[in-house]
Amino acid sequence: MTYRPHIVVLDPVSSNALADLRQYHEVTVRTHPGHDELLALAAEAEALVVRSGVRITADVIRAGQRLRVVARAGSGTDNIDLAACREAGVQVFNIPGASAPAVAELAIGLMLAVTRNIAFADRQVRCGLWDKPNLAGPGLQDRILGMVGLGPIGSRTAELGAAFGMRVLAAVARPSEERDERLRGRHIERVELPRLLEASDMVCLAVPLTEETEGLIGAPELALMRNDSYLINISRGGVVDEQALFHALREGTIAGAALDVHEHESGISGLSELDNVVLTPHIGATTTDTQERVGRLLVQELRTVLAGGSATNSVC
């Protein structure tokens, strides 16, 4: 009998990807298991597949005596203990860039939803309230978009913002004269974060969650923003101090916020008490097109790694 490596899929992936994986591998699908079940699943797995919903901690890696690879079907790896993977010799790969168009489109959608009061107006109309005179908000044309982070998602969001007629500022982690020149060629002005916060009508966060970016936007940073400006978070919930954001929104320090990512991605957010907030459940990459694209790449990379090779985008 031909040997078939065992893959455990812990977050939703496309049905076509699952069908392809099952041609050559044993596949177990258990979405969002409890901790004890996760340890048991890891003990039998040679590959774990996750998105952002499951944390692969050091004890999960230790339980995986046969584990060879953790596959992140997306970009961020903050939910994977990379140090534990390195120590155990477990390869980790992600699929960056594939979801960038979808996440960037959602970023623009969130800007429109919060500035034009689309979500708020929808709630009102469903309750029989037609309050058109009090639903006016700013347009995007001729406004300043401040991008914090210019990876694939930030870059695409900047392009879409420019297509709406926005002027784009950017704050990046590793500035250089050469990079500034390239950005100017794309009609993007690189500035330091405090200047971006002070000048922007829309501040859009598109950075990974790292030790450097955790709590990047707190009360001092929000205080730098104008009272007619908006915060958009499409990165990770931990990048923003949500308690400070709640106070800034309630007190009118900023005009509004839209978040696709949250400190706690379950239950009811305290921000839901406020009408000047739009909240979505981390759906940035959740388009059918994107998930099919990610699924195809996931299958290719898993086949390579489980055959003894290295992934194209090996994180560790």
TrEMBL record:
The keyword NAD applies. One of its GO terms (molecular function) is NAD binding. It comes from Haloactinomyces albus. Coiled coil: none annotated. InterPro entries: D-2-hydroxyacid_DH, D-isomer_2_OHA_DH_cat_dom, D-isomer_DH_CS, D-isomer_DH_NAD-bd, NAD(P)-bd_dom_sf. Residues 108-284 form the D-isomer specific 2-hydroxyacid dehydrogenase NAD-binding domain. Gene3D superfamilies: NAD(P)-binding Rossmann-like Domain. Keywords: NAD, Oxidoreductase. This is D-3-phosphoglycerate dehydrogenase.
